[in-house]
Design brief:
Shape of chain A: globular
Distance between the termini of chain A: 36 Å
Number of strands of chain A: 21
Largest sheet of chain A: 6 strands, antiparallel
Radius of gyration of chain A: 19 Å
Structural class of chain A: alpha+beta
Number of helices of chain A: 7
Helix content of chain A: 10-25%
Order of helices and strands of chain A: EEEHHEEEHEEEEHEEHEEEEEEHEHEE
Oligomer: homodimer
Chain lengths: 325, 325
Amino acid sequence: MRLATRRNGRRDGELWVVSPDGSSGLPGGDLAPTMQAALDDWKQIEPYLRGLSERLEDSPSQGIALAPEDLLAPLPRAYEWVDGSAYINHIVLVRKARGAEPPETLRSDPLVYQGGSGIMLGPRQDIPLPDPGWGLDFESELVVILDDTPRGCSPTTGLAHVKLITLCNDITFRNLIPPELAKGFGFFQSKPATAFAPFAITPDELGESWHEGRVHLPLHSSLNGEQTGSPEAGPEMHFGFGELIAHITRTRGFTAGTLLGSGTVSNEDRSRGVSCLAECRMREIIEQGAPSTEFMKVGDRIQIEMRDSEGRDLFGQIDQRVVTP
Amino acid sequence: MRLATRRNGRRDGELWVVSPDGSSGLPGGDLAPTMQAALDDWKQIEPYLRGLSERLEDSPSQGIALAPEDLLAPLPRAYEWVDGSAYINHIVLVRKARGAEPPETLRSDPLVYQGGSGIMLGPRQDIPLPDPGWGLDFESELVVILDDTPRGCSPTTGLAHVKLITLCNDITFRNLIPPELAKGFGFFQSKPATAFAPFAITPDELGESWHEGRVHLPLHSSLNGEQTGSPEAGPEMHFGFGELIAHITRTRGFTAGTLLGSGTVSNEDRSRGVSCLAECRMREIIEQGAPSTEFMKVGDRIQIEMRDSEGRDLFGQIDQRVVTP
């Protein structure tokens, strides 16, 4: 089942069930008016939404046309956004880029940060760049959406709380990170609003590509029409989503609708390319002494998508342009 | 005007307007069902709520009894919780306690961290302590609640977005902080759910005690019935809420209902006592070589409140007990 949030002039938009090809859908209506309402009461509402989904599959003509421009983030405002950094290759490269050592517990203790969740960007919403000197970068990631998740989950019990999966562009101002992290309290100004893919899908849509709490498919990113990378999201995700959930629930529980990110998808094999510019720049520094890739500038276009083994688009495309605010 | 959120079996509770003595109130009803709904549409809804407030003041007998046990946090789930650390004395002492230097930009660049906001504790909700070795501490703070706040506020334009003020207990597991901050991504496991005072009040309720984006009154904290401190919240708040809002809006905007904390209220004059145990322990380490104050344990009771110059209770009391979960 694929879900989306359609613009309707209200803060939370309205929940739609989306057809297999992503071009049409049916509104959740009074029973499931918003994505948050569905997640608040998932056990009761999921069967109803699956009914709508089957109707769309059986009688595609019943669907109402749905344009990506009309979609908001699956949760346009969310109660919590926790972003992991589960790809070791990304951590090592990006820390090198800012002259920092990877943490000693790199392989035993997951890295996560608490992100801002009050304003989330939709798949076609522009990225405002107030100051090109801030070093705008994209970061292509997988994201799971949880239902009510209690304190003290194991990786196995934690995974049972993954209700939906989507993609994000964890937009980052790279040049604001070093002074911010030097203060010791984590990211803040360096992380503006994050953008999300059009569709949030149930794990069963991924078939065998979803196993061990990882999505075993490549994630494609393109900048200005040229592919920057298509790293495999599965094998090098050192901590799966189950381990990340066990980590975040050590001392507290999470409310339905919590978003949990994988961190930037990254492979050691450099022929797979990159899911952010910071990794490119670091490789250039290592090889040439200085970066030749520039950060993003006004007018740039970033596209992020994932396809299944048959080439079917799974989450729709994040397709954003950088603009002067 | 004083507002509260009353338990009604739903996730967001229901909004109530509270009488001057805090003992009774009137529900916001269909026009203002929840605190979030009121903040989403503050300009339209505020006059209506003020009307209810005047009715309560003119005819106290119209109020319905309201017990603190029935109250949830003003926002039981919030879209964003940003906590500052604006009292220099607290930063210096607590960093000494963990052998860390204060940041070089201590007096020029505010410290804030992004907190978890999906589950907030009410004023009488217990504090679960799964492991006494985690070093449970309270932190008494002021909190402002914002309406829609755009990117790029100045301290002056920022202050205009402060719609409500309340108190919090920013509960902290001190012993989880050093390994967590060593990883470089800020707090996460060290910050379980934060607790809030019964009432959120409009700034005009503070009269002249609210000026320059600071609350010029002492904040009282008591542990097991003994006062730990009553530091003045105004003069030593190095960055006022206006400066904190300018800081957090540098790169992004915030949605209505965002919570912004002052950080632990702290005075250099040690006769004012403390708003957290870490400061006591640091002073003991400096003077005696080792801390003699223990962190909180199961059965402990923490009470936090603020009174105006005539002794009137402003926000109601945070009154929590530590329990085994």
